[in-house]
Structure formats: structure tokens, C-alpha cells
Design goal:
Number of domains: 3
Strand content: under 5%
CATH topology of the largest domain: Serine Threonine Protein Phosphatase 5, Tetratricopeptide repeat
CATH architecture of the largest domain: Alpha Horseshoe
Largest sheet: none
Radius of gyration: 60 Å
Shape: elongated
Number of helices: 12
Order of helices and strands: HHHHHHHHHHHH
Distance between the termini: 139 Å
């Protein structure tokens, strides 16, 4: 408390000197730095005493000492905190390693209980499982590879078949068409379309028995194939089996009405135009429209 009073007295003294100097200059003039310096040189007695100076020095020293003590305390607290964190970290690491070894010991005990009496048995089991899995992967890979090769071969076969169909459609000779159909059947023996179109080409060569054989083979593979029924009807008509011809033509028309118009102009059915069942089947709609 005393030091505050002394500092207050010192401030009042300095303020009094400044006020006296201001009074000498007058109310309208301001106090400048030069005036303050001149006033300081002409002081008749010092503004402070040795006692005040000693007090200020002691206070400054005490303040520095307090700052040093505060800094030392702060450093000590930081170091203690770091040591505490390091101690906790070491404790956590030690506990983790301990628990890990406990876990290994427990797992080993369990393995011994369930029958794996040694590390060698465990290794053998793992080796066996690994080999089994590798063999499964190898088999799966070989199956996929085989399937891929089959798909690739099928694609190549399909492309070749399409090329042969295009070739057959562009041929004018029936022999060349039959050769193309035979090549298709070599690639796909169960190709019903190739059999029925081959039968058509054979009929153009006046070979109805051969055509009948081909159509019957096609119908065994696909009983609902309309083109095979139509070609079989044409073949039966060529050899004079009228009822069989009409029966197969009827089946073809049931599958597709387009065969009705084809039959009305097909030369193979020329001898059937006077046959009542053929006329009722093929020309029924035309006769009804004429009567109307």
C-alpha cells in the first residue's frame, strides 16, 4: 500500500511542475517538448529523492523475480504434464503387449483343447486348406477357360453358318445350294431350317423321296416347324400321296397363313387343284369372296 502512495506523490509532483510551467506560458499557449526540456534543466531541486529511486529499483527487481518464478513454475508444470503423458503411454503400451500375450496364450490353449496339439498340426491344417482352395480355384479357372473357348468356337461357328446361308441364298444352282446346306449341317447337324431348305432344293431336282426323308428328320427335331410341314406336303404331292399332302399342308397353314397363298401357286400342288379337300383348304376364302 505504501508504494502506491509514493508513486502517486511522484506523479502529483510531476503534474504540478507541468501545470506551473503551463501557467507561466499563459492560457493560450501550448506546452512543447522544448519547454519541458528547459524546465527540467532549470529545476532548483530534483523531482525525486534517493528513497524513491531505491524503492523503484527494489520494485523492479521484485517484479523480475516474480516473473522468473512464474516462468519456472510454468516450465515445471509443462514438464510434469509431458512426463505424465509419457508415463500413461508407456503404461498403455505395456498393458497392450501384456494383453496380446494373454490372447495368444488363450488361443493356444483353445487350440490344444479342440485337438490341435502342436504348431505342426496347425501348419498341416492350414496347408491342406490352402491346397484345397488353390485346387478349387484352378478347377474354376479351367472351367471358365473351357467355357470361354466354347463360346468363342460357337461365335466362329455362327459366323461361318451365316456366311454359308448368305452363299446359299446367292447360288442359282441347286447342287451348289445343297452343298452349302450340307456344310451348315456339318457344323450344326440339328439345324432344322437347313434340313427343310435342303429338302426344297432337292424337290427342285425332282427327288421327292429324298425330300421326304429330310423333312421327316427335321420334324423329329421340331414338330411345329411350318416350313418342314410345307415341304413334306409338296413331296407327298409329287409322288401322288394326296391325303398325306393335304394333311401336312393343313398343319403348315395352321402354323402360318402365308403357306395358303404359297400353295395356291406352287407347281407341286398343280394336280391337287381338282381335289376337294385341297380346294376347301386353299381356295375357301377366295371362293367366299367371289360369291360375295
Amino acid at each position: 500500500m505504501i508504494r502506491y502512495y509514493l508513486m502517486f506523490a511522484l506523479v502529483l509532483t510531476f503534474a504540478g511542475q507541468a501545470f506551473a510551467q503551463q501557467q507561466q506560458l499563459g492560457p493560450e499557449e501550448e506546452l512543447t517538448a522544448e519547454d519541458l526540456e528547459e524546465s527540467t534543466r532549470t529545476l532548483e531541486k530534483p523531482m525525486y529523492t534517493p528513497f524513491v529511486e531505491l524503492y523503484l529499483l527494489e520494485e523492479t527487481k521484485a517484479l523480475r523475480q516474480e516473473m522468473q518464478n512464474t516462468r519456472a513454475e510454468l516450465i515445471e508444470k509443462v514438464v510434469d504434464k509431458e512426463l505424465s503423458v509419457a508415463d500413461k503411454t508407456m503404461s498403455y503400451a505395456t498393458d497392450t503387449v501384456t494383453y496380446f500375450f494373454y490372447l495368444i496364450a488363450g488361443a493356444t490353449s483353445i487350440l490344444v483343447v479342440i485337438g490341435w496339439n502342436s504348431i505342426r498340426d496347425m501348419r498341416n491344417q492350414l496347408t491342406s486348406l490352402a491346397e484345397k482352395r488353390v485346387n478349387e480355384l484352378v478347377v474354376e479357372y479351367e472351367q471358365k477357360k473351357k467355357k470361354k473357348n466354347q463360346n468363342q468356337a460357337e461365335i466362329e461357328r455362327t459366323n461361318e453358318v451365316h456366311a454359308l446361308w448368305l452363299k446359299a441364298s446367292q447360288e442359282t444352282s441347286q447342287q451348289n445350294k445343297i452343298a452349302a446346306y450340307d456344310q451348315i449341317l456339318d457344323l450344326r447337324p440339328d439345324d432344322v431350317e437347313a434340313l427343310s431348305y435342303k429338302a426344297d432344293a432337292v424337290l427342285e431336282m425332282q427327288e421327292p423321296l429324298w425330300a421326304i426323308s429330310l423333312c421327316q428328320r427335321a420334324l423329329k427335331l421340331a414338330p411345329d416347324n411350318g416350313h418342314a410341314h410345307y415341304q413334306l406336303a409338296c413331296a407327298y404331292a409329287e409322288i401322288g400321296r394326296w391325303e398325306d399332302a393335304v394333311s401336312n399342308l393343313e398343319k403348315a397353314i395352321e402354323i402360318s397363313e402365308a403357306y395358303r397363298d404359297d400353295a395356291s401357286v406352287d407347281p407341286s400342288f398343280e394336280h391337287l387343284h381338282d381335289h376337294e379337300s385341297f380346294r376347301n383348304l386353299v381356295f375357301q376364302n377366295k371362293d367366299d369372296s367371289t360369291d360375295a
